[in-house]
Amino acid sequence: MTDRADEMITALRSGLDDLAGLVRGFTADDLARRSGASEWDVSQVLSHLGSGAEIFLATIDGALSGAGAPDGDFIKSIWARWDGRSRAERAEHVVGANEALVSRLEGLDRQTKDELRIPLWFPAPPRDVAGLTGMRLTEFAYHTWDVKVAFDQAATLEPWAVAQLLDEAGVLLGFTGSAGELDGQAAIAVRLTSPERSFGLGIDDAVSLTDVPGAPDGVLSAPAEWWLRLVAGRHAPEHTPAEVSLDSEKITLDDLRRVFPGF
């Protein structure tokens, strides 16, 4: 039987295999394309994925050795090195950097996966292996979409990400949601497909997941992968499939888009 850490690591491996297949075919023009992250070209997204892999690996190694999380100067040096690379060099090194991270996770024994607590490089409680891998999977999945959508406006999050990230979305929207963007309050019933889920979305002083409201201000129907992209701000009309709908006299899809400006 696999546990949460194993599931997350397996999903991250699938994501890396997916990204490696993409990167192998990129031309110089492909790397210069504008990505789904509006301020970055494709190579800059790859740079972020590469530097992030190195930071996560250093964080795990610090926990294993007892040295603790990497400090700010170390992290800045990683960013500077990746920023200083050419577009082609970013593409050349991104898979290897992520392979080192995924291989380290795959090599952890059962006791370590269960018991290790990993201090982070920012103010937050330590994570276990499942929690840290979930953080990385979230970042990896959304930024892989940023790469794919540069070539396909209808790109979606891959199945390897959706099943795992649905359980992480409640935490993520606490950081990404901006309740003040909505004029007033709203209680939305959310109905997802592929996989099917039903819950409530509350927009009040903050944004949170709730039980399905008995008298909702609207009903949002959407594929699960689009819901995840909504929460992360990757929800522009040109990236929204036709089956997404919001049945409401009080709130529109554009209102929800403002509530989730993205990162």
From TrEMBL:
Keyword match Transmembrane: no
GO molecular function annotation: isomerase activity
Entry-linked InterPro entries: DinB/YfiT-like, Maleyloyr_isom, MDMPI_metal-binding
Pfam families reported for this sequence: MDMPI_N
Record domain Mycothiol-dependent maleylpyruvate isomerase metal-binding: where: 13-147
Keywords: Isomerase
Full protein name: Maleylpyruvate isomerase family mycothiol-dependent enzyme
